[in-house]
Amino acid sequence: MALVIPVILGSVRQGRSGLRAARYVAGALASRGHEAPVVDPAELALPLLTRMYKEYPKGEAPEPLERLATLLRRSDAFVVVSAEYNHSIPPALSNTLDHFLEEYFWRPSAIVCYSAGRYGGVRAAMQLRAMLGELGTPSIPSLLPIPEIQKALDEEGRPLQPWLERPAGRFLDELTWYAEALRDKRQGGVPY
């Protein structure tokens, strides 16, 4: 059965490489029959967090927040694509994620991290793992780090290096397993 797995991009910088990773993962999920829309904070243009989505009176949230809330509520899992900014996650990613809370509950997340260098953004992934757990969307054990992203993926998200396919396949297998297991469990009810 098809899953709904938004791919949440973390960067709004000019010339950002994360769009390559988001397109790659969204395409890989779509090729497995899943719905994988890319959530792009540059397109959403969300305000800095002054009020969470749930703090708006019903029907009064800005349209981009309402649209994103609708997508998150019908999702089975999330893939978060993060660069590493100063050994941490990008502010646009934190801002996008922090607008919501209950919409993430009881759904797994998975972290794709990247960098122009050799470490693939893993230092940001460690902080992101704690944040996602606190939001109620714990990350799966595996990460998909993409070092030297400009050499690994082209601008459309097509692999340039053969090494990427194997770890990406295993990573998505693991995410699918968790997403299906938690979807089935949610259908029977949640603890609160």
From TrEMBL:
A Gene Ontology CC term for this entry? cytosol
Species annotation: Methylobacterium currus
Query: What is this protein identified as?
Result: NADPH-dependent oxidoreductase
Origin: domain of life: Bacteria
| A molecular function GO annotation | oxidoreductase activity
Every NADPH-dependent FMN reductase-like domain range: 7-146
